[in-house]
Amino acid sequence: MATTADIRNGLCIELNNDILKVIDFQRFQVGRGSGKVWTKLKSTTSGKVVEHTFQSGHAITEVRVERRKFQYLYPEDGGYVLMNQETYDQMSVPEEMLENGKFLKEGDSVDALFHAQKESLLAVEMPQTVVLEITYAEPGVRGDTATNTLKPAKVETGAEVRVPLFCEVGDLIKIDTATGAYMERVKK
Q1: The domain 129-186 belongs to what CATH superfamily?
Q2: How many CB atoms lie within 10 A of CB 136?
Q3: pLDDT tens-digit readout, 36-88
Q4: Exposed site from 18, 76, 107, 174, fewest CB < 10 Å?
Q5: Measured between alpha carbons, how far is residue 2 from residues 39, 84, 119 in Å?
Q6: Residue from 148, 151, 156, 112 nearest 131 by CA
Protein backbone atom coordinates (compact mmCIF):
# COMPACT_ATOMS: atom_id res chain seq x y z
CA MET A 1 0.00 0.00 0.00
CA ALA A 2 1.29 3.40 -0.96
CA THR A 3 0.34 6.83 0.36
CA THR A 4 -0.15 10.23 -1.22
CA ALA A 5 3.56 10.93 -0.59
CA ASP A 6 4.33 8.39 -3.35
CA ILE A 7 2.26 10.15 -6.02
CA ARG A 8 4.28 11.12 -9.11
CA ASN A 9 3.60 11.67 -12.80
CA GLY A 10 3.08 8.40 -14.66
CA LEU A 11 2.05 6.44 -11.55
CA CYS A 12 -0.92 4.10 -12.07
CA ILE A 13 -3.37 3.76 -9.19
CA GLU A 14 -6.65 1.95 -8.61
CA LEU A 15 -9.56 4.21 -7.66
CA ASN A 16 -13.32 3.52 -7.87
CA ASN A 17 -12.76 0.14 -9.61
CA ASP A 18 -10.78 1.78 -12.41
CA ILE A 19 -7.08 2.06 -13.16
CA LEU A 20 -5.99 5.67 -13.49
CA LYS A 21 -2.68 7.19 -14.55
CA VAL A 22 -1.42 10.36 -12.85
CA ILE A 23 -0.96 13.08 -15.47
CA ASP A 24 -0.35 15.99 -13.10
CA PHE A 25 -0.34 16.57 -9.35
CA GLN A 26 0.23 19.32 -6.83
CA ARG A 27 0.69 19.26 -3.08
CA PHE A 28 -0.63 22.15 -1.00
CA GLN A 29 -1.50 23.08 2.56
CA VAL A 30 -4.16 25.56 3.61
CA GLY A 31 -3.86 27.29 6.97
CA ARG A 32 -3.68 24.98 9.97
CA GLY A 33 -5.44 22.05 8.33
CA SER A 34 -3.80 18.97 6.95
CA GLY A 35 -2.24 19.09 3.51
CA LYS A 36 -3.95 17.96 0.35
CA VAL A 37 -2.77 16.47 -2.91
CA TRP A 38 -4.61 17.58 -6.05
CA THR A 39 -4.28 15.15 -8.96
CA LYS A 40 -5.28 15.05 -12.60
CA LEU A 41 -5.89 11.43 -13.55
CA LYS A 42 -6.53 9.73 -16.90
CA SER A 43 -8.56 6.53 -17.03
CA THR A 44 -6.76 3.72 -18.88
CA THR A 45 -10.09 2.12 -19.85
CA SER A 46 -12.20 5.05 -21.04
CA GLY A 47 -9.55 7.74 -21.65
CA LYS A 48 -11.47 10.28 -19.54
CA VAL A 49 -9.47 12.83 -17.57
CA VAL A 50 -10.70 13.50 -14.03
CA GLU A 51 -9.48 15.57 -11.12
CA HIS A 52 -9.34 14.16 -7.62
CA THR A 53 -8.11 15.60 -4.31
CA PHE A 54 -6.64 13.35 -1.62
CA GLN A 55 -5.92 14.20 2.03
CA SER A 56 -2.19 14.00 2.80
CA GLY A 57 -1.25 10.56 4.07
CA HIS A 58 -4.29 8.90 2.47
CA ALA A 59 -3.61 5.30 1.42
CA ILE A 60 -3.76 4.60 -2.32
CA THR A 61 -3.60 1.33 -4.19
CA GLU A 62 -0.66 1.39 -6.58
CA VAL A 63 -0.90 -0.79 -9.68
CA ARG A 64 2.32 -2.43 -10.85
CA VAL A 65 2.78 -1.66 -14.51
CA GLU A 66 5.22 -3.17 -17.01
CA ARG A 67 6.41 -1.14 -19.99
CA ARG A 68 7.12 -3.07 -23.18
CA LYS A 69 8.41 -1.87 -26.55
CA PHE A 70 6.18 -2.46 -29.55
CA GLN A 71 6.62 -1.60 -33.22
CA TYR A 72 3.79 -0.15 -35.30
CA LEU A 73 3.12 -2.33 -38.36
CA TYR A 74 0.00 -1.08 -40.16
CA PRO A 75 -3.48 0.43 -39.65
CA GLU A 76 -6.48 -1.86 -39.34
CA ASP A 77 -10.25 -1.28 -39.31
CA GLY A 78 -10.72 1.00 -36.29
CA GLY A 79 -7.29 0.35 -34.85
CA TYR A 80 -3.60 -0.40 -35.25
CA VAL A 81 -1.52 -3.57 -35.41
CA LEU A 82 1.54 -3.61 -33.13
CA MET A 83 4.34 -6.17 -32.80
CA ASN A 84 6.24 -6.97 -29.60
CA GLN A 85 9.92 -6.31 -30.33
CA GLU A 86 11.13 -9.16 -28.09
CA THR A 87 8.69 -12.01 -28.82
CA TYR A 88 7.45 -10.86 -32.26
CA ASP A 89 3.84 -11.44 -31.17
CA GLN A 90 1.30 -9.19 -32.88
CA MET A 91 -1.72 -7.56 -31.31
CA SER A 92 -4.49 -5.29 -32.51
CA VAL A 93 -5.10 -2.08 -30.53
CA PRO A 94 -8.30 0.01 -30.86
CA GLU A 95 -7.97 3.62 -32.06
CA GLU A 96 -9.19 5.03 -28.73
CA MET A 97 -6.25 3.48 -26.87
CA LEU A 98 -3.61 5.27 -28.97
CA GLU A 99 -3.91 9.04 -28.72
CA ASN A 100 -2.79 10.83 -31.92
CA GLY A 101 -2.01 7.56 -33.69
CA LYS A 102 -2.39 9.44 -36.96
CA PHE A 103 1.26 10.53 -36.59
CA LEU A 104 2.62 6.96 -36.56
CA LYS A 105 4.38 5.63 -39.61
CA GLU A 106 5.31 2.03 -40.25
CA GLY A 107 8.26 0.92 -38.14
CA ASP A 108 7.88 3.52 -35.35
CA SER A 109 8.25 2.32 -31.76
CA VAL A 110 5.64 2.83 -29.05
CA ASP A 111 5.49 1.85 -25.36
CA ALA A 112 2.68 -0.42 -24.21
CA LEU A 113 1.75 -0.44 -20.52
CA PHE A 114 0.55 -3.78 -19.13
CA HIS A 115 -1.04 -4.58 -15.75
CA ALA A 116 1.64 -6.85 -14.23
CA GLN A 117 -0.71 -9.20 -12.34
CA LYS A 118 -3.52 -9.49 -14.90
CA GLU A 119 -1.37 -9.25 -18.08
CA SER A 120 -3.93 -6.87 -19.59
CA LEU A 121 -3.12 -3.90 -21.79
CA LEU A 122 -3.69 -0.59 -19.99
CA ALA A 123 -2.41 2.04 -22.42
CA VAL A 124 -0.19 2.69 -25.41
CA GLU A 125 2.12 5.70 -25.28
CA MET A 126 3.35 7.50 -28.38
CA PRO A 127 6.91 8.80 -28.61
CA GLN A 128 7.18 12.46 -27.52
CA THR A 129 8.06 13.65 -31.02
CA VAL A 130 8.06 12.25 -34.55
CA VAL A 131 9.83 13.42 -37.69
CA LEU A 132 7.64 13.30 -40.80
CA GLU A 133 7.93 14.52 -44.39
CA ILE A 134 5.50 17.07 -45.80
CA THR A 135 3.67 15.62 -48.82
CA TYR A 136 1.38 18.58 -49.55
CA ALA A 137 1.53 22.25 -48.57
CA GLU A 138 0.03 25.35 -50.10
CA PRO A 139 2.65 27.79 -51.34
CA GLY A 140 3.42 30.64 -48.93
CA VAL A 141 2.72 34.22 -49.98
CA ARG A 142 5.95 36.09 -50.56
CA GLY A 143 6.53 38.89 -48.06
CA ASP A 144 3.97 37.59 -45.57
CA THR A 145 6.58 36.59 -42.98
CA ALA A 146 6.23 39.43 -40.48
CA THR A 147 3.80 37.46 -38.35
CA ASN A 148 3.73 33.87 -37.15
CA THR A 149 1.24 32.89 -39.82
CA LEU A 150 0.59 29.16 -40.21
CA LYS A 151 -0.74 27.20 -43.17
CA PRO A 152 -2.18 23.67 -43.39
CA ALA A 153 0.08 20.88 -44.61
CA LYS A 154 -0.29 17.12 -45.01
CA VAL A 155 2.43 14.79 -43.81
CA GLU A 156 3.35 11.32 -45.07
CA THR A 157 0.95 9.56 -42.67
CA GLY A 158 -2.03 11.56 -44.01
CA ALA A 159 -2.38 13.73 -40.90
CA GLU A 160 -2.83 17.50 -41.25
CA VAL A 161 -0.54 19.88 -39.37
CA ARG A 162 -0.33 23.68 -39.22
CA VAL A 163 3.19 24.76 -40.29
CA PRO A 164 4.95 28.11 -40.87
CA LEU A 165 4.84 29.64 -44.35
CA PHE A 166 8.46 28.74 -45.18
CA CYS A 167 7.77 24.96 -45.01
CA GLU A 168 7.45 23.28 -48.41
CA VAL A 169 6.74 19.85 -49.87
CA GLY A 170 9.62 17.47 -49.13
CA ASP A 171 10.70 19.19 -45.89
CA LEU A 172 11.12 17.07 -42.77
CA ILE A 173 9.39 18.49 -39.71
CA LYS A 174 9.35 17.53 -36.04
CA ILE A 175 5.85 17.22 -34.53
CA ASP A 176 4.87 17.09 -30.85
CA THR A 177 2.61 14.01 -30.63
CA ALA A 178 0.82 15.18 -27.48
CA THR A 179 -0.56 18.35 -29.09
CA GLY A 180 -0.10 17.63 -32.80
CA ALA A 181 1.79 20.92 -33.16
CA TYR A 182 4.71 21.76 -35.43
CA MET A 183 7.97 22.12 -33.48
CA GLU A 184 10.78 22.69 -35.97
CA ARG A 185 12.14 21.89 -39.41
CA VAL A 186 14.70 19.07 -39.50
CA LYS A 187 17.67 18.92 -41.85
CA LYS A 188 17.86 15.93 -44.17
Answers
A1: Nucleic acid-binding proteins (2.40.50.140)
A2: 10
A3: 999 999 888 777 889 999 998 899 999 888 889 999 999 888 889 999 999 99
A4: 107
A5: 15, 31, 21
A6: 156
Cα 42 to the center of its chain, rounded Å? 11
Considering the four listed CATH numbers 2.30.30.30, 3.90.1170.50, 3.90.550.10, 2.40.50.140, the one that applies to the domain covering 2-62 is 2.30.30.30
What's the one-letter identity of residue 115? H
* pLDDT digit string, tens, across residues 102-157: 899 999 999 998 888 888 888 888 899 999 999 999 887 666 666 678 889 999 99
Q: Are strands 36-43 and 49-55 parallel, antiparallel or unpaired?
A: antiparallel
pLDDT in the model for residue 25: 94
Percentage, residues of the chain above pLDDT 90: 46
Q: Say yes or no to pLDDT of 184 above 90.
A: yes
